[in-house]
Amino acid sequence: MNAVLITGAGPTGLVLALFLARKGVPLRIIDKNTGPGRTSRAMAVHARTLEFYRQLGIAEEAVQKGIKVNAVHIRQGHKEKGRVNLGDIGEGLSPYPFVLSFAQDEHERFLLKHLIAAGVEVEWKTELVSYTDKGGFVEAEIRKEEQTEVIETAFLCGCDGAHSTVRRELDLGFPGGTYEHTFYVADVKASGEAASKHDLNLCLEEDGFCIVFPVRSTGMNRFVGIVPSALENREALSFKDIAPFAEKLLHVKVHEVNWFSTYRVHHRVADQFRKGRVFILGDAGHIHSPVGGQGMNTGIGDAVNLAWKLAGVLNERVDEIILDSYETERIAFARSLVATTDRAFQAVVGQNARGRLVRTVLIPRIAPFFLRFPPIKKAAFNRVSQIRIHYRDSLLSMGKAGKLQGGDRLPWISVGRNDNFEALKTAAWQVHIYGKANPGLLTIAKQHNLPLHEFAWSRASANAGLRRDALYLVRPDGYIALADSEQTINKLTEYLSKFKIRN
């Protein structure tokens, strides 16, 4: 019996499989498609995702395959109305203080290569037909072409997208709505100032907008925009129909079209992310507007959150109660994110006077001015990069030391060529002390096979909100589980005992 069956081989499913494979968990991953995506539309890879990739040892390669976005040019017609310099906007906050443009179709092939290297092959043209949670295991029927197979698995993970079979079989509500606009996405070769090879271009008019991303692998640009109202009801829409509007809006000339597609945008969150031995992740559980490029990164965050917990349970390293924290931690963030991006999206695309004001005045003129100031840039990076996500209300989160609480992301501290995130590559439970560890703590950590890392106290530690000589028990995903100012050994041992934690 395979320990985990993953259905859906998009970024969420692939990252889940990668983390599980690294922990030695037997798994199968299936997808009804013939291969990795070719017409996907997610482009932005944020800092928190790259921090997770560093734990897998693939972050630097991802950065090389993508393009660091240096700036956002805000245009109206042929004129640049504003510019937001990004560069290393999150300097001092993350080892990846930038936004990476990395097309999802290329991204999926990148993840797939590393999964194959880990000894796991995606079973393409294979779909989940039905399943039953038997209590001690899940019985699933899968089909490849005309052949069906009934298998048993300890856990089933639905990463199968907005039309998820897993979610439907769980009979979960998926409340929310669909935006009235139809979007288009196209991979094109174009010339003109908006067809930059390094920067992002946001082109706005009173009645529309289009975002232009550079794509390293093809040297092309990806257009993501709203279908003009004059074409909204046209059947079999092609880029030839869109081209006159896009070229006028962007002030570019399109020479070649690699592919083109249209889609509708939803905003929904499932009622639950788990029932028994069945979980849903990514678009199966939540769908967002494209504002801020959050959707794919959120799905990857789901995968990392669940992967270490499943691996811990299956490898008998933690108590099964820890699985209860997955839904609590991720559904709260998904609901908050959908509400936030929905408000922002409605403001940007609205066809009323407010929407036109946002597109023609607020974004091109006011936003670039305020984003010159370091505190505002820092706040913007914290929000968009997903490093601000915390799990303070989780059953796994306890204590406070300095400005940090259990459930907060461990802040990144860099001193010279060294940083504290190097220790996280093990994806294991560990103790961090920024200062000096007491001899008793060293003994207890050794007894529990718990790595203990001492980092010299520095100005950077203080600025990050850490407390000198405090104890921080860090989860495998880099979040603080327990924070204690006094290095109280009993608190640490009680926490380890409560969740039956051992490395």
TrEMBL record:
<keyword id="KW-0285">Flavoprotein</keyword>
<dbReference type="InterPro" id="IPR050641">
    <property type="entry name" value="RIFMO-like"/>
</dbReference>
<dbReference type="GO" id="GO:0071949">
    <property type="term" value="F:FAD binding"/>
</dbReference>
<protein>
    <submittedName>
        <fullName>Monooxygenase</fullName>
    </submittedName>
</protein>
<dbReference type="InterPro" id="IPR036188">
    <property type="entry name" value="FAD/NAD-bd_sf"/>
</dbReference>
<keyword id="KW-0503">Monooxygenase</keyword>
<keyword id="KW-0560">Oxidoreductase</keyword>
<dbReference type="GO" id="GO:0016709">
    <property type="term" value="F:oxidoreductase activity, acting on paired donors, with incorporation or reduction of molecular oxygen, NAD(P)H as one donor, and incorporation of one atom of oxygen"/>
</dbReference>
<dbReference type="InterPro" id="IPR002938">
    <property type="entry name" value="FAD-bd"/>
</dbReference>
<dbReference type="Pfam" id="PF01494">
    <property type="entry name" value="FAD_binding_3"/>
</dbReference>
<keyword id="KW-0274">FAD</keyword>
<feature type="domain" description="FAD-binding">
    <location>
        <begin position="3"/>
        <end position="339"/>
    </location>
</feature>
